[in-house]
Amino acid sequence: MAKRLNNMRKTLIFSIAVNGYHIQYQANLKSLVAYADRMGFSRVIVTQPKFSPMGLEVVWLKLRLVLAALQAGYDWVIYVDADAAVRATAPNILADIDRRNAFFAAKGYSGRINSGVLVFRRCSESIRLLETILQHREMCLPAQDDVGWGENGHVIHFSREFPLLEILDPRWNNNSDPDLDDYIRHYSAGPMRAHFKVSRSAHLGYLCYHYVLAVYARLAHWGPASVTLGPQLDALTASTLHKYPLFLTP
């Protein structure tokens, strides 16, 4: 048992919930913590900084943190979006995959890879894939891969020919079927969004938070012209790794 627990501690699962998401999706985040503890995984919920001028583009941080954790020595790194809830009955995701592969993701309602749930095994191939995606983050994508914003289109594009990709069972990232007996229910934009239920107090707190964020952004002169993805992402990654050292201490 001690050996198994030690092996599981070399697995990191994390989520990112900034710009008010820690309020709106607090129940989802608690479900992730409960799952991690039940499986014996190391876990981190990133809730800092309170405000980020990157706005929606803060999603790029997930890939930088996955890469840092793999390079630090974690055997497995699992990422789950804050708007996804992990069922109390969800089994160990690592027991449901072919561990000879290196990158694991499910397809969303669009029929393309959805980056709301990502699993990476530490190996040279997975690290090279992440580095390639990040190096080409400013690249314009073909229409078949483009999703309009964020990193998801780049994940779709660069994993298309990746030989060690495994498509996860849709139960591990269900953002399309409310009747599916799933493991992770993802309330992203699309068919599942209407099924998300949040307490009145949490939703009110989220709205108030975004009002303060809008005022702060205006005072700080944030806007599209103020956001340069490369330098902003570098700074955000460095500050996150400083605030959450578990990413670097398997």
SSE blueprint:
Elements: H1 2-9, E1 11-16, H2 21-24, H3 26-39, E2 42-46, H4 61-72, E3 76-80, E4 84-86, E5 103-107, E6 113-121, H5 124-135, H6 152-159, E7 165-167, E8 184-186, H7 200-219, H8 229-243
Parallel strand pairs: 1-2, 1-3, 5-7
Antiparallel strand pairs: 3-6, 4-8, 5-6
Helix pairs in contact: 4-5, 4-8
Key features?
250 residues, Spore Coat Polysaccharide Biosynthesis Protein SpsA, Chain A, 37% helix, globular
Describe the protein's architecture and organization.
- With 250 residues, the protein is α/β, with parallel strands linked by helices.
- The chain has one domain (2-248): Spore Coat Polysaccharide Biosynthesis Protein SpsA, Chain A (Alpha-Beta Complex).
- 37% of the residues lie in helices and 16% in strands.
- It has eight helices and eight strands; from the N terminus they run αβααβαββββααββαα.
- The chain has helices spanning 2-9, 21-24, 26-39, 61-72, 124-135, 152-159, 200-219, 229-243, and strands at residues 11-16, 42-46, 76-80, 84-86, 103-107, 113-121, 165-167, 184-186.
- The strands form two sheets. The protein has a six-stranded mixed sheet, with helices on both faces. A two-stranded antiparallel ribbon has the order 4-8.
- Strand 5 (103-107) and strand 6 (113-121) form a beta hairpin.
- The longest helix is centred in the C-terminal third of the chain and has 20 residues, at 200-219.
- It is globular.
